[in-house]
Amino acid sequence: MSDPAAVHLLGGEMLAWSDPDGAHGPGPVRGLGLAALLSVASGRTLVAGPHHPHLLDALPPTDLTVLVRGLPDAESLAARYADRPGVRVCCGGPEKLAGTRPYDTVVALAGLDRLASVEGAQLSWGEAFDLLVSVLRPGGRLLLGVENPLGAHRLLATSPTSTDSDWAALGEYDDTRPTGPARLRARFAASGLRVGGTWAAFPSPLAPTALLGTDLLADPDLTGFLQAVLSDRAVVSDGGGATPAEGDGPAPAAPLLADPARLAGSAVRNGFAVELAPAWMLLGERLPDPLTQAEHPAASARPVEAAQTVAAPSAASLVQRGRLREVRRDPAGGWRFADGEAVPPGRTVEDLVVAAALRRDLPAVRALLTTWQSGAEAGMPADAVVVTPAGTWHGLAEATEPTLALRRLASRLIDVGLADLWPTGELAAMLTMMAGREPGQSAGDDGGAAAGGWRELLVDRDRLTRELAEARALQGWYERTLTERDDELKRLRRIVSLLHGTPTARAGRLLLAGARTARRTARSAVRRLRPTD
Fold first, then answer.
1. Across the strands, what pairs with 351?
2. 10 Å Cβ neighbour count for 513?
């Protein structure tokens, strides 16, 4: 345990409480994407709430203040940063920050619901927000995370879970809490903050692996790219259940009502991705006070000029297979990754196949499947391959076996409700043959892709129930037909038996027997009369 003198006790400390261990709540906010967002921090910095130490390591350590409510967490952080004199660890309630020297950057990516201490004042969302704004100097920046009460993670959850940290959380019933990005931006503006960026966080508020800017989500040309990003299993896999002791990798997730990737893709297609995001991350810059600026124009301008030297945040941060990729706007038009690769516009192969199938355009479906399976993207999922308007194909995922990609497409088509357009139980095999490939041993198994939730399981159950009913009906028809033909054969045999015993039948048999005997006799006579050599 660290030296208690290294921890600054503000009052309202929780002596036996820890947020990062995950025993009393969901754990700290974490992730490589959030670490990239912290690049905007500069100068005197305050971090309020439970943040993973990896995020704290990404902040400038010259003048860093960390505020936590649990004393064990404060002591652990003090021991971790004992060799960094610029790091100051405070423990207590956020109301104790009032009147302190202002900060250049305030970070609260874990939200405002887990700032208050049970030993201190229970602040509403609005009161906690005003408190953080009050300790921000003019020209300073505020990074705030806000969970969406109507986010996809809540809509698809089977039932809400209560934790020890929910002792006074009002959530969506807090009248001071803005609902939706538009009202949040209005609340920032009313508090004298200019919004410098808004990002939608997927797939969870605590461990987002995709931070997508609103400008990027509003671009209709990137529908395919965004769908591919949000359907990528490396992005959709939620690491929210892992505690810091277990690492930041994916943990077994609770059952969901539906596939989150399908809901996210549909939200992108219909322009509701921002509204259904599990959380929003907002960057605000405090504008100078007009009275202070009039009295001391030079002093009020200095912080703003210093803030302008900080690099602008990226339009998107994606964590895929442990690697961070950032997207920025291209001055020449469009969007590019940080490494210079262009972000492809267009639609996914899956969208194009579904649209062609709904039009009953089998030649178009065959052409798409053939082109897909004959190129370098053959093993990539159809929802991770973007076809640009120019006709170029771009794969955005790692390639696997082509058969698995076709089986996944078959499963997705079944989930969409297009199973009735194809022969029963043969969709994967038919797609494989239409793509010009030989069906594998398990090509007829349409369950190649795991169901993402209860909805997909119910769809599979209904499909299997329908196919079983059709198979039973066909079996019943076969049995009836066989019975009818067997009865007809018996009837004909009875008729033959009856006809076989009549005098006419006996006379006919005698006549035929005499004719056979005469024929044999004639043949013998002919052989005897034939001259021999």
1. none
2. 10
CA angle (456, 199, 182) in 5-degree steps: 95
One-letter amino acid identity for 60? P
Query: What's the Cα-to-Cα distance from 176 to each of 172, 183, 194, 391, rounded to whole Å?
Result: 10, 11, 20, 50
Residues forming beta bridges with residue 91, ordered by sequence position:
9, 68
In 3D, which of 109, 198, 202, 112 has the Cα closest to residue 152? 202
* Collapsed DSSP state (helix, strand, coil) of residue 212: strand
Q: How far apart are the first and last CA of the chain?
A: 126
User: What is 158-208 written as a DSSP string?
Assistant: SS----GGGSS--GGG-TTS--SHHHHHHHHHHTTEEEEEEEEEES-SSS-
Beta bridge partners of residue 47, listed in sequence order: 66, 107
Q: How many CB atoms lie within 10 A of CB 321?
A: 10
pLDDT of residue 452: 64
CA atoms within 13 A on the CB side of 245: 6
171: left (phi over 0), alpha (psi -120 to 50) or beta: left
Determine the 3-state secondary structure of 138 from DSSP. strand
Q: Which residues pair with 228 in a beta bridge?
A: none
* Spatial contact of 279 and 176, defined as CB atoms under 8 Å apart: no
Pairing, β 210-213 against β 316-320: antiparallel
> For the stretch 99-110, what's the b/e string if a residue is b when 16 or more beta carbons lie within 10 angstroms of its beta carbon?
eeeebbbbbbbb
Radius of gyration of the chain (CA): 36
Q: How far apart are CA 437 and CA 183, in angstroms?
A: 53
Domain ranges of the chain: 4-159+173-337, 347-452
CA distances from 310 to 82, 99, 396, 520 (A): 27, 27, 31, 117
Asked if residues 125 and 112 have their Cβ atoms less than 8 Å apart, the reply is yes
Q: Which residues of 430-460 are buried (b: 16+ CB within 10 A; e: fewer)?
A: bbbbbbebebbeebbebebbebbbbbbeebb
Instruction: List alpha helices for 296-399, DSSP H.
Output: 297-308, 349-358, 362-373
User: Which among 141, 145, 144, 130 is positioned nearest to 191, based on CA atoms?
Assistant: 130
Amino acid at 222: L
Specify the CATH number for 4-159+173-337; select among 2.40.50.180, 3.40.630.40, 2.40.30.40, 3.40.50.150.
Answer: 3.40.50.150
Query: In 3-state terms, what secondary structure has residue 45?
Result: strand
Q: Of 276, 267, 120, whose CA–CA distance to 200 is shortest?
A: 276
Which residue ranges of the chain lie beneath pLDDT 50?
1-2, 234, 238-252, 296, 299-309, 441-449
Rama region for 99: left / alpha / beta (φ>0; ψ in -120 to 50; rest)? left
Exposure class string for 244-259: b at 16+ Cβ within 10 A, else e: beeebebeeeeebbbb
pLDDT per residue as tens digits for the range 229-240: 988 754 555 444
Looking at the whole model, is its pTM more than 0.90? no
